[in-house]
Amino acid sequence: MDSYRKDFLLNMYSQMWLNINRHILVVWQSVTVLITVIALFSAVHKEVLPLWLAEIIVVSVGTWAICHAYDAHVWYHRNLSIISNIEREFLGKSDLENISFFVERHREPEKILHHLKLQIFLCGWVVSFSWIYTVVHSCLSYSDGQFWLRVLAPSVAYLASIFVCYSMHKRMVNKNKKFSTSSPGKKLIGMSST
Fold first, then answer.
1. N or C: where does the chain have the smaller number of CB atoms within 10 Å of the terminal CB?
2. Whole domain around residue 24: which residue ranges?
3. What is the model's pLDDT at position 188?
4. What is the pLDDT of residue 33?
């Protein structure tokens, strides 16, 4: 292998790992959602903000965090696939046993990293719990003409959030599948299939 190509691939390999690290370290998103919920419900308690509006903001921030986790996974999948393809430039079939068998195939496109799954679950749980609280509280506490605003507005936001998160998940899987299909990498030396 030409030394310029080798240097280029090794530098690219290092950069891909930097990209992965940047997109994995998104734990702050979950903290943002929790701080937002605490701040908003504190504002509701002090009667600075109506409950239904606070809930719409909670749903929006939670949806943002979930979509950001999906986007981080797309970046992770792409960079890990590129890393795997670069590793195949240097490794042979025996390295599957000697170094790592992960080089043989790209990661499944729909398999999300565990810590991103936890963030998605946490944000989804916080949003769902606060929505349920908002609806139940509104049903039990208010009988004025704004009842529908207090229940319907957060419910529409919640349903829109589910749609947006579902769409983002499908988009993530499709992007990962397209990348894996478009850039499968070379076969390891001495192997008949990728």
1. N
2. 3-182
3. 67
4. 84
